[in-house]
Write a structure and sequence with these properties.
Elements lengths: L1 H9 L4 H92 L1
């Protein structure tokens, strides 16, 4: 193996460049380890955020279940209100049309 390593180094024209690259390897390893630690910390933060979201979502579902009857009652009341408003507008339009017809026949 020593012979192969020697021939590998011998083929390079600039041995100083190879030496500088070899000296940078421990620094690169340390950078890689630091980046990996940052990723682990980010994973922990993301997981805790997801747990918080799941907890709040469960609370919202719990609140929705308890308010669903009230919401259904409110929707029914709103629907009846809208229908009554539309009927009133139709009746008012009919009275207006009838009064215009009577006014036109009188003139």
């Amino acid at each position: 193996m020593n012979h192969l390593g020697y021939s590998y180094i011998e083929n390079f024209e600039d041995i100083n460049k190879l030496k500088s690259e070899l000296e940078e390897i421990p620094e690169n390893i340390q950078k890689y380890i630091k980046e990996e630690e940052k990723l682990d910390n980010n994973n922990d933060q993301i997981n805790s955020s997801l747990e918080n979201i799941n907890k709040s979502d469960k609370k919202l579902k719990f609140v929705k279940k308890h308010n669903s009857k009230e919401q259904q009652k409110q929707m029914i009341d709103d629907y009846h209100s809208i229908v009554m408003q539309q009927k009133f507008i139709l009746a008012l339009g009919g009275i207006t049309l009838l009064s215009l017809i009577i006014l036109n026949s009188q003139i």
